[in-house]
């Protein structure tokens, strides 16, 4: 269907919405989705249309407001005369003093750096590119409303929370208030499904309105809801358990692996009728791996079932524990408690079957069998799965498989997208319309280059023919982001020379040539359009380019940030320098101290610690460390937290090269701009289509501002 035909359908759907003909609008929007599931904001509009169509006259807020007003008037008419004479004045007396109470260890609600109030600014984003060629972000958590089979939630690895109210036909962003969008779990209150909990890298968030607004309530990545009293909650991460008896308003720390066995936690469950009995699969170097039980809410534990470690796993029993006990299920059967467990890639049993991706020969089909492996049956092929030819490919695509509690024939398989079957897994269709794209690293060309580069997803390794290749797709735009050309997938990262025409990609740190071990990198000297392999010392894992001397490179055996982020005691042993664009290298003595960043000496952009140098002062540097913005005025000899950052979920920061007082920030909760060097910030998320997770933000040499989000690449302009 031609572009103008889609536009005509879109305009007709808008007219139908204005006329409140929701059925007609839904049909038109569905027609557009069948042709182009990324067309404008059709997924969001369809979701809103379905929501409006589902609204009943007796649920309309204006109706109840009117009825309430009439009721008050009637009650006032009849009751007021009878109240005359019943009023009297009571003298207030001080309340009796309450005795001081010492409570167990209690945690207050975690506080987030205050998000600046949005200031009206005449700036808005316009989408330049949808990114349909790119994979969806990986779904890490999935939940179905226990009372409405059409209401679904999908939690993403980077892109936040998405909600569907039409059974997966369309999705829309639902992460307003989330200050971290790396989702680990989703839990729904069975008694009140409007209450939803999400576990993220930054803690637990709660919504009272079905995901419209989220509020931080506590620590942890997973939530257990007491089935007898849903205000009673437990949360955990791998090392700690917390308890709340008031719906998350206050918390008590009840367990820490630092205090001793049973050690780190891999899975957990709560007794269906005893809120103080918990079960975990756990283990540590000094602790016996297995299933533990607590009858006092997690404060003390006893070993319930020992996990026998088979030969070959003595030094890697933790991975075996993950393989065998990644989920726990507790149920009552004939008055007895039955405890079941299973591996990461297998669902808990439902109607006597477990579901998983077929093992042999790693083909992309869904299988099911009895829990003991008997009666295996191959079902259909979910549309989102590709062929996996190796064990590494197979385990890299561990899916989230969910069987609907409303209909066992309705199955969702989630990974990089969502597939849906309504016939027990025999046939499949896509259910990904409106889900966000994978993480996108946007880079602006330097020097005289008017180019943009895009690196979707993460760097991955591939072992072939005795060597280890690093691979990360690279796209190039020469027309301001409206169209992108695939350049290469060989190598990882993008290191730019000061003038931008020369750039580098790291490929491998070991390769047997037949005579010696070598590594290599890829070099482009035409602005990224073509690439050539360059041999380098085999121990190099990181390359950085001097930000003022062209062709001047430094190389390290470890990432320069390894000392501070992974191992504080690490001492760099391998340190090299090249003055000829990497053709030859000279080994140097390692520097006395590894800096957090390199300021005016070196430029290195690491996706875990993005760095930006002030164009007017090379010693002034901003670094983002796990969402926290750090500032240095001495080339990173010292750094301190930047007190006036927009929030603590920072992903990217960019100076305007023509005016260093203007700074842009991309965060998990929107885009921001400062016109006074970072002292004050204003949100500029208008036009991002609700997907306000800003993966990266850049400013080119002409002061054009671009952002990469789950919904593609955007450019900032006036309203």
Keywords, please?
mainly beta; globular; 12% helix; 719 residues; single chain; 52 strands
Would you write up a description of this structure?
- The chain is mainly β.
- The protein has 7 helices and 52 strands.
- The chain has a 5-stranded antiparallel β-sheet, with no helix packed on it. Strands 28, 29, 30, 31 and 32 form a 5-stranded antiparallel β-sheet that branches.
- α2 (about 20-35) runs antiparallel to α3.
Topology:
Layout lengths: L2 H16 L3 H14 L6 H13 L6 H23 L22 E2 L15 E7 L9 E6 L7 E5 L4 E4 L7 E2 L9 E6 L7 E5 L2 E5 L7 E4 L3 E4 L7 E4 L3 E5 L6 E6 L7 E7 L7 E7 L2 E8 L7 E5 L10 H8 L2 E7 L2 E7 L11 E4 L8 E4 L7 E2 L12 H6 L3 E4 L7 E5 L1 E5 L7 E2 L9 E5 L7 E5 L3 E5 L2 E11 L7 E6 L1 E5 L6 E10 L4 E8 L7 E5 L5 E5 L6 E4 L5 H4 L9 E4 L7 E2 L14 E2 L7 E3 L7 E5 L2 E5 L7 E2 L8 E7 L2 E9 L2 E5 L7 E2 L12 E4 L5 E5 L2 E7 L1
Antiparallel strand pairs: 1-14, 2-52, 3-4, 4-5, 5-6, 7-8, 8-9, 9-10, 11-12, 12-13, 13-14, 15-16, 16-17, 17-18, 19-20, 21-22, 22-23, 24-25, 25-26, 26-27, 28-29, 29-31, 30-31, 31-32, 33-34, 34-35, 35-36, 37-38, 37-41, 38-39, 39-40, 42-43, 43-44, 44-45, 46-47, 47-48, 48-49, 50-51, 51-52
Mean of residue pLDDT? 80
Number of helices: 7
Number of strands: 52
Spatial separation of the terminal alpha carbons: 31 Å
Tell me, briefly, the overall form.
globular
Q: Give me the Rg, rounded.
A: 28 Å
Strand order of the largest sheet: 1-14-13-12-11
The portion of residues assigned to helices is 10-25%
Global structural class: mainly beta
**Main sheet characteristics:** 5 strands, antiparallel
Uncertain runs are: 55-118, 463-467, 561-566, 598-608
β-strand percent reads: 35-45%
